[in-house]
Amino acid sequence: MRYAVIADVHGNLEALEAVLKKLKEESFDALLFLGDSVGYGPNPNECIEVLKNKAQVLLAGNHDRAAVGLTDTAFFNPNARLAIEWTQEVLSDENKKLLASLPIDKHMKREHLCLVHSTPKEPEKWHYLLSAWDAYNNFPFFSEKICLIGHSHVPAIIEETPEGKINTFHPKAEIKEDHRYIINAGSVGQPRDGNPDAAYVLLTENSVEIKRVSYDILLTQNKMRRAGLPNHLINRLSKGV
Ligand code: ZN
User: Fold this and answer.
1) Which residue, 20, 79, 139, 191, shows the most beta carbons closer than 10 Å to its own?
2) Domain residue ranges in the chain
3) Residues lying with their CB under 5 A of ligand 1, a single-atom ion
4) pTM score, two decimals?
């Protein structure tokens, strides 16, 4: 199997379409989406509709849950909260229903994959898995070979050797026998690793690669301005932070 893996689209239709266009050139069997279709960006309905049609697996992230009142926004920063309130107003009833129905993790035993928006240890707590230490603490909490995550908007490939050693790779790695992996797909619609290009991951039985594609950031930013979304959220897209 060859998987295309994406996460954290956040209502950014231009970024999502750029990734899907690029993916047309790559051959893959299934598109896996790890959550946060909405929040921050100006096209939440359109992104949900594209994802619903293109992805074989869809998860909900904290912003998806917050947009339908299933996660408290008390811990959201003020800009994220403003964007969620705007999103709640524009989301169609049908898309709200869909978001409310999505799981926050999925165990695909036969494919040896665990999918979760935040962390395998406590998916509902929306912790960030950022360091090798975080990864070390999360490997015991899934039984599959590979766990695919999103949420931090920072792509990463983390390997656990049979001896329990943690290695990190960028932007690609070999998938080795008897080793286990946590792979963060980065963010399509709001990258935060200093690279503004949309991120996605290609995963095969023996390889994984983080890929990037540029998109029309100015168009997205103009739409955000017209929607009255916070300036900070508009500006950060150009820097990828
Ligand atoms: Zn996110």
Assistant:
1) 191
2) 3-237
3) 8, 36
4) 0.97
